[in-house]
Amino acid sequence: MDRAHVWPHVPRSWLLFEDDDLLCVDKPPGVSSQAADPSNPDDLVTRLKLFLAERGDDPYLGVHQRLDRDTSGVVVFARRRAANAALAAQFEGRSVAKTYVACVVGWPVSRSRRTLRDALKSGVGGRIHVASRRSPDVKAAVTDVKVLERRGDRTMLELSLKTGRTHQARVQLAHAGAAIAGDEEYGGVAAPRLLLHARNLALRHPASGAAARFTAPVPADFARWLSGQDDGGAVYDDRDRLDQALRAAVDRRWVLGRGDGSPRTTTAFRLVNEEGDALPRLAVDVYGSWLVAQFYGDNGPWSDLARRERVLDRLTALGFDGVYLKVRPKQSNALDEGRREQLAPRRAVRGVDAPPELEVLEEGLPLVVRLGDGLSTGIFLDQRANRRRVRELATGKRVANLFAYTCAFTLAAAVGGARSTVSVDVSVPALERGRAALGRAGVLAEGRHAFVADDAFAWLARSARRGDRFDFVILDPPSYSTSKRGRFVAETDYAELAAAALGVVAPGGRLLACTNHRGITPSRFRRILFDACRLAGRDVVQLKDLALLADFPVRPGGQPNTKSALLTVGP
Predict the structure, then answer these.
(1) Among 354-368, 472-486, 542-556, whose mean pLDDT is lowest?
(2) Is 0.70 surpassed by the pTM of this model?
(3) Is 68 a catalytic residue?
(4) Catalytic pick from 21, 42, 43, 68?
């Protein structure tokens, strides 16, 4: 597999114009204009500089324009310092003409043209809002609006921005009662993405002075949304549209895909996350040079098997060594062995097989997965950030890992310098894989790490009776499970389980609580955890919601599958 081929610094399709003085690109949605997080430099400027350096050119770029991460379209840069001053003068003097296209609901039928004149002000958390012109620190915003096309209550607008304020078009349209579709922050209706696109940019060439106009074609998903053809399943019937969606998902994981060869390199992560990447009921994970495609349910988009085969073909075309298949029915715990083999073949369904035990890296932590071992691989990729937290917080701590599975959390704690660990799971083979993982990493110190094959509820009850206490307890149960104690359903039983876990947390200790039950929202999860604290009679010093991973995006207005919180209990 050639990672530079799968993840080029800048795909050629982004380039609109280039000469000695200017570089103009069509920025896709999901790519930041400039890095907000220096530790995660996946922004447009960083990628362009690497692209220029890779081909032996001066990587200098004069930056005068930004688009929001989820806004697509024209961005222009100066290529030389001599051209930079002339370009800067045009942007500062507002002689650069910028035209956008937006899709909205709520634009009045009677208004085919309108000029929006508002005073904008930054509020709490940097959120922009319309304020009184007499308010201090306001900035004037002027936008000319023209209706391009209307279908029912949906309208496509052309926007000519006469000023260049932060979130100008988004705030002004929302204030006018027609928030941009997909704009969760300012109240837009649901859409596959933020439907705002910088279509045209006109200026004077900084060297010749000649008029120059750069155009990025309006993305096809704008017209599909306008006509009501935004049913997610249809993406699988159009090869070009499917390729476009997959390519966009790949581009968003550029910083993970290319890696940097540092000790914190990651080679296992999510490539496609269902509706978050506009590909419903499809998840695709990267494990080194292989992909694992997960199709959720055998109804909906997958009632037509040709769609599934088409997805596998297009994934193969991305350039990985092989693709494994996992079809996830609604209930998978009662499947017989023959059915499991049909839904999760042992061998790759495209390309070549991976080694039976494949080592991948997670921020430098070595983990072994089995891609052909049923519906699971041995690791849950959505817990990468939580394993990093455990690694950082476990130093010198007594750690209990409940529902440990193959003990990836335990490995993180041990590598982070935990004083001792206990891993609890009903599966002996899973625990043995965990023990082997600690051995491979050289952290299986004698007497410091225990592996207990038991039901978590039963183990918690015994530990509480003995007075065992732990500085750090990790609670990541399945959404549904069955044991000798009975059936566990996270939606109804999580509070009781979390209360039992809190019963063995030492004074001042922490509980990392997680759930991937789709029916539990983040706000409800917080309520469940507060209920657990009351049941356990424990005071909470802090309950901190933990952020999502960038490779697990959710659709605008959607809810994440995985919810995590870090609780610190009182003394």
Answers:
(1) 472-486
(2) yes
(3) yes
(4) 68
